[in-house]
Design goal:
The protein is an alpha+beta fold. It is 28% helix and 42% strand.
Length: 114
Amino acid sequence: MRAYELMIILEAELEESIVQGVINRTTEMVAARGGSVPTTDKWGRRRFAYEIDHKTEGFYVVLEIVTEASDLDDVDRFLRLADETIRHKIIRLPDKEAARRGLVGGEATPATAG
């Protein structure tokens, strides 16, 4: 199993129920393939650094996912086709960072003050 971070930018004017529906559908797709979504962080409405598709704001959501790489193809396709999605990005977390966050096995190293 590997750890990933998925950032989704949804249209800013969406109702909370639609935002939650996209999050729930994404979580269900990951769970159906044996993965898990330990954390969901709603950042809320944020202003873009530049205009995207004639829009200046979006609703940001970040999900931490633990699954196999091949399991994310369906999620990627769903988000590409969803009308509510402006942008999305899936990145694989480095093993040390995933262990530090407690997402995968391994020794988490404490942060040092410096």
